[in-house]
Amino acid sequence: MAKYFDVHPDNPQARTIGQVADSIRSGALIAYPTDSCYALGCRLGSRDGIDRIRTIRKLDDRHHFTLVCRDFAQLGQFVRIDNDVFRAVKASTPGSYTFILPATKEVPRMLQHPKKKTVGVRIPDHVVTQALLAELGEPLLSSTLLLPGEDEPMTQGWEIKDRLDHQVDAVLDSGDCGTEPTTVIDFSGGEAEIVRRGAGDVSRFE
């Protein structure tokens, strides 16, 4: 059964955040809120976590996983960004955007797109997520909590606990979060390509 953590949305309890971070370090797969919607998350190098996310969402090996980063400095360790792309990404973070960019050697090969050698990255604008990332000290490997056959991501912590009780190890609930997944922008070819229109305003990339 998944552990259920009820966290204050504006002042997340340090002890609770510490417990969740410890469980991630020990290999846990969690469901957690972001500024766009709930996501599944695990430690960066957790093959078991990746396999479990693929199973829950029925994903193939072409799916872009996302590294959810605390800040721009951390993001820059995992992707290569030229000057023009740097300005566009910097202006849009933190926020409800995921950017697909060429991965650096810091990114495990199992997380990279098999042909393009790219990975998704984002910096969320969410107090609880930021507190967790600060405590963890590294990015969370993540994927939107969108179940197979459904059009919208899950948005309620209690519902996630009920439906995924034996598939995740913990659910972090801080009340309502977004209902739309992130807007996905692919910069791997140098120009902005809108892959998914979501919570982030796409007008600056058109």
What would the keywords be for this entry?
10-stranded mixed β-sheet, globular, 10 strands, 206 residues
Please tell me the overall pLDDT.
94
Distance between the termini: 45 Å
Biggest sheet layout: 10 strands, mixed
**Residue share in helix:** 25-40%
The dominant shape is globular
DSSP strand tally: 10
Protein name: Threonylcarbamoyl-AMP synthase
Domain YrdC-like: 14-200
Pfam family, one: Sua5_yciO_yrdC
GO molecular function: double-stranded RNA binding
Structure description:
This protein is α/β, with parallel strands linked by helices. The protein has helices at 14-25, 47-57, 72-75, 83-91, 127-136, 157-163, and strands at residues 3-6, 30-32, 39-43, 66-68, 97-102, 118-122, 140-144, 170-173, 183-186, 193-196. Strands 1-8-2-3-7-4-6-5-9-10 form a ten-stranded mixed beta sheet, with helices on both faces. A hairpin with a 6-residue loop joins strand 9 and strand 10 (193-196).
Fold topology:
Blueprint: E1 3-6, H1 14-25, E2 30-32, E3 39-43, H2 47-57, E4 66-68, H3 72-75, H4 83-91, E5 97-102, E6 118-122, H5 127-136, E7 140-144, H6 157-163, E8 170-173, E9 183-186, E10 193-196
Parallel strand pairs: 1-8, 2-8, 4-6, 5-9
Antiparallel strand pairs: 2-3, 3-7, 4-7, 5-6, 9-10
Helix pairs in contact: 1-5
Provide a brief overview of the structure.
By secondary structure, the protein is α/β, with parallel strands linked by helices. It is built from 6 helices and 10 strands. It has helices at residues 14-25, 47-57, 72-75, 83-91, 127-136, 157-163, and strands at residues 3-6, 30-32, 39-43, 66-68, 97-102, 118-122, 140-144, 170-173, 183-186, 193-196.
